[in-house]
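Quick one, tokens below. Sequence please?
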């Protein structure tokens, strides 16, 4: 069974459970909407942060996967392309680390698993990433050696991220699933410490110090 198949099973189970929760807990949601505990506020805030982080990572990864990112023209010189790719790699590393942090705080079902598989995939491509100045730390987070990245060949970055059967396509599977789980938690709500189902669409909240 592949990593993707495992996550698809989780996704299917999660979809069914949240659909059931929406139906069974609609009355509970309406009667409990008058107030939110700090736990509920924090859960909703953390899930929104996770959704934002996943969306940002999707965007930065897509930029590196897009073949047009690496194309030169009369107005887009090789030097400009190199600068753009360097900035995109640094943005990807930043967004990647943000998702790791967000997944640890989120109550989104399946997000931690998707993030774990993403990190495992990154570890498998550690040597290739190191070749463009991106290092994988013991905590799984990415650090960028800007000088090494500056000296890296643009085609090497392209081969690592753009096209099929490479890091970009492998990571993209789990980034997409991470975004799915995070967005589902924001759309469908989260179970609270009291056992109530809090739908983010029915509550407005303010953060507390």
């Amino acid at each position: 069974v592949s990593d993707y198949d495992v996550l698809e099973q989780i996704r299917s189970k999660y979809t069914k459970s949240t659909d059931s929760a929406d139906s069974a807990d609609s009355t509970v949601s309406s009667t409990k909407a008058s107030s939110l505990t700090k736990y509920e506020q924090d859960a909703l805030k953390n899930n929104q942060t996770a959704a934002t982080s996943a969306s940002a990572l999707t965007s930065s990864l897509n930029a590196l996967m897009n073949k047009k990112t690496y194309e030169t023209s009369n107005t887009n010189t090789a030097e400009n392309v190199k600068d753009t790719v360097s900035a995109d790699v640094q943005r990807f590393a930043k967004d990647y680390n943000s998702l790791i942090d967000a997944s640890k705080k989120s109550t989104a079902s399946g997000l931690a698993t998707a993030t774990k598989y993403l990190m495992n995939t990154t570890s498998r491509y550690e040597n290739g990433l190191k070749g463009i100045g991106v290092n994988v730390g013991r905590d799984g987070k990415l650090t960028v050696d800007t000088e090494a990245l500056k000296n890296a060949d643009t085609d090497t970055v392209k081969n690592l991220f753009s096209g099929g059967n490479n890091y970009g396509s492998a990571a993209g599977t789990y980034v997409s699933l991470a975004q799915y789980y995070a967005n589902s938690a924001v759309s469908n709500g989260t179970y609270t410490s009291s056992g109530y189902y809090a739908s983010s669409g029915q509550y407005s909240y303010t953060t507390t110090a």
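The longest helix spans residues 38-65. Residues 20-34, 190-209 have pLDDT under 50 and may be disordered.
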